[in-house]
Amino acid sequence: MRVLAGAALVAMAFTGTAARAQQNPQAEAQALELLKRGIAFRTVAGPGNQTPDYAAYLKAQLVAGGFDPADIRIERIDDTAWLAARYPGTDKAAKPIYISGHMDVVEAKPEDWTRDPFTPIVENGYIFGRGATDMKYDLSTMVATLIQLKREGYRPSRDIILLASGDEETSMKTTAAMAEQYHDGELLLNIDGGGGALDEHGKPEIFGLQGAEKTYADYELTFTNPGGHSSAPTKSNAIYSLAHALAKIEAYQFPGEINDITRAGFVQGAKTADPEMAAAMRAFLANPRDAKALAVLRSEPGLIGQTGTTCVATMVNAGHATNALPQRATANINCRIFPGTSVAAVAATLAKVVGDPELKLRTLDSGTVASPASPLRPDLMKLVSDGIHARFPGVPIVPAMSAGASDSMWFRAKGVPSYGVSPIFMKGSDSFAHGLNERTPLSEIAPSIVYYKFLLQGLTK
Ligand SMILES: [Zn+2]
Question: What are the helix (H) ranges across 99-196?
Fold first, then answer.
C-alpha cells in the first residue's frame, strides 16, 4: 500500500522552490537503473513470483557497492523472500535504525495497461510501471543512498538495517517474520508511508508523516433460518434480520478518540481549514467526545477515520432462489479500529449494537495485528522537518494516522516506534498506486537521495 495520510487535513497555498542542481550524480543514475531493473521483476504473489530474484539482484548491487555479503540475509518464505541488509555502525551497543520497505507489488494485468506494467518506460519525465510508485521507487533511491554513503566512506555511529519485506501487499508473513527477529531498534523509518502532496500546479501543500495506523478487521454477520416456500412467508426471515442489523450498525457511531499523532494533525489542520471545519477541529481537540464537532468532522470522508473507530458494511450475500424464503443472509462489516481498542472489543460492540440473539458474528482472520501509536519524537520530527524544508521551505509537516495496514504495524506491535517518511511529493492526478499506468515523476530521485542522506546521517551521527 502507499497512501498519503492526512492530506485532507490541510488545503493551503504557499510558495516553495523545486529547482535544484544534481548533488549525488552517481547515486541518482544508480537509483534510476535500480528502479528500471526492479520494475522488470514480476514480484507478484503466486506462481512465477520473482521477489526472490529481485532480492538477489538487490543483494548483488549492495555487495558491489561495498556491503559485506555476510551482512545481507535473504530468507525464503513460501513463494517469496525477505531481505535484511546491515550497514554496520561503530557503536555496537547502540540500538540500530531500521528502514522498512517492500519488494512485492500488486498484480497488474498487461491487457488493461496502456504500457506493459513490467517493462519500465521513461516518458515525459515520468517512469511508468507496476511498482513505479508503490514502492520500488523509494526502495531504489534508498538502496542508492546507502551505496552512496559507502562510496563517501561514511561510518554511522549505530547499525542501519534495511528490512525489505516480500509480501506487504498480501499476507505479510515476511514482515511478521522480520519483526520477530528485528525488534530492538531505536526506531524504524518506513519509506513506504508518509509523503507529500502537490496541488495541480505543482505547488507543495502538505507533508504527511505517518506515526500511527488503525487496525484493519473484518467481521462476518450471519443469520440463518429454516426457510420455506416464498408463497407462505414466516415471521422470521434471515434477510430482514440482517437488514435490521445493518440499519443499527449504520446508525451507530463509535466514540470520538484522539492520540498524539491525530492531535498534532488536527492542531495543524485547524490553522488552515475553512472556518467551520477549523472550529470543529478546535472543539474536537478540546473534547474528542463533542457531538457537534464530531458531526462536522465525520461528514468529511477524509477526516472521519481520524476521529475514532469506523465500521461499514462492504458486502452482502443472501438467499438461494427467487421463490424461496432465505435460509442464510450474511454481510461483511469492515472496521478500521483506533489504536488502543482491540479487535475483540469491536466484535463485542457490534454484537451489542445489533442486540439480536439470532446473530452469529465471526471475526475473520485479516492477517493484521493491533499496534500502538508511535510517540512524536522531537528529534525525529526536527530531522524530518529540516529535511523536507530544505527542499520546500515552510510546507506544513503533519503527523498522520493511516487507515492500516502497513509493514510498520508489525514493528510497532513489537515496541519499535515507526514512522512513514517517504519524501516523494506527487499531484493527486499522478497517483496511480495499485492502479493502471502507475507512474512517478523522475524529479523526485535527486531530492529523495539528499533527504535520505540527511535523515540517516542525522540519526547515526
Ligand atoms: Zn506499499
Answer: 136-151, 173-181
Distance (Å) from CA 413 to ligand 1 centroid: 19
Q: How far is the CA of 420 from the centre of ligand 1 (A)?
A: 11
Name the nearest CA neighbour of 393 among 10, 111, 19, 31: 19
pLDDT at 363: 98
DSSP 231-300: TS--S--HHHHHHHHHHHHHH--PPP---HHHHHHHHHHHHHS-HHHHHHHHHHHH-TT-HHHHHHHTTS
Q: How far is the CA of 67 from the centre of ligand 1 (A)?
A: 25
Q: For the chain, what is the mean pLDDT?
A: 93
Cα–Cα distance, 244 to 293 (Å, whole number): 28
Cα separation of 169 and 149, whole Å?
30
Whole-model pTM? 0.88
Measured in angstroms, how far is the CA atom of residue 139 from the centroid of ligand 1?
10
Q: What are the Cα distances from residue 149, in Å, to 24, 47, 52, 73, 366? A: 10, 37, 25, 20, 39
Cα–Cα distance for residue pair 223/269, rounded to 1 Å: 43
Cell numbers given for 264: 498534532
Nearest residue to 248 (alpha-carbon basis) of 339, 332, 351: 351
Ligand 1 center to 148 CA (angstroms):
24
